[in-house]
Amino acid sequence: DQQVKQNSPSLSVQEGRISILNCDYTNSMFDYFLWYKKYPAEGPTFLISISSIKDKNEDGRFTVFLNKSAKHLSLHIVPSQPGDSAVYFCAASFSNNAGNMLTFGGGTRLMVKP
Amino acid sequence: AAGVIQSPRHLIKEKRETATLKCYPIPRHDTVYWYQQGPGQDPQFLISFYEKMQSDKGSIPDRFSAQQFSDYHSELNMSSLELGDSALYFCASSSGPGGDTQYFGPGTRLTVL
Fold first, then answer.
1. Cβ of B103 and A46 within 8 Å?
2. Which residues of A touch B102 (CB under 8 A)?
3. Euclidean distance between CA atoms B29 and B26, whole angstroms
4. Chain B nearest C-alpha distance from A27 (Å)
5. pLDDT tens digit string along B1-28?
6. Cα angle at A28 between A36 and B29, to 5 degrees?
7. What is the full per-residue pLDDT of chain B (113 aa) written as tens digits?
8. In the Cβ-directed half-sphere of A12, how many Cα atoms lie within 13 Å?
């Protein structure tokens, strides 16, 4: 059973518009969430994270929202740029110990059209 | 800024051979993680080490073993390679106890023929 899901395999957005990527999780014990951007044959690049004690975290064009009651988080990119085109993974973890694994969603391919 | 270093970047092996992948974490990071990403799949956690002790274990085959050394670098040893082991292997590192961001290396692409 997949504990972290990204139900949209792909998303196409016009340059300058908002991109919204969604992620759902089932394990209520997860308390730390991250978004990574990935290009083919490269390692995931960290974008932004959020702890379960918060419901929003912002860093430049990237904002992550967390709705714990719905077990849902989303990544907003405003404004979207063609260079944002990549696969985006959400990931969840527990913060109680060092070395805790990340559980990844299946990824969403974002295409930003000029 | 220094990133996670993985070597080799590409590796081609025959079935039943052995392979060793190396990971050098970001300076002052004490925790390393290994992930495997098959074609069209999301990264799957294999194993992690904190302060040279195994911390968490995922779906790592018994044919694989790993360790973290005194300088915090880590090695993933893979024996009796199978065709299904062909994948991208990522190492990540973080600093301190849980909740810290994991920073990933560029990966090692292993091809088993």
1. yes
2. 34, 46, 102
3. 6
4. 16
5. 789 999 999 999 999 999 999 999 999 9
6. 45
7. 789 999 999 999 999 999 999 999 999 999 999 999 998 888 999 999 999 999 989 989 999 999 999 999 999 999 999 999 999 999 999 987 665 799 999 999 999 99
8. 2
Burial of B2 (0-12, 13-18, 19+ CB in 10 A): exposed
> What's the number of CA atoms in the CB half-sphere (13 Å) around residue A56?
3
Closest-CA residue of B relative to A88 is B42
DSSP conformational letter for B59:
S
**A109 — alpha (psi -120 to 50), left (phi > 0) or beta?**
beta
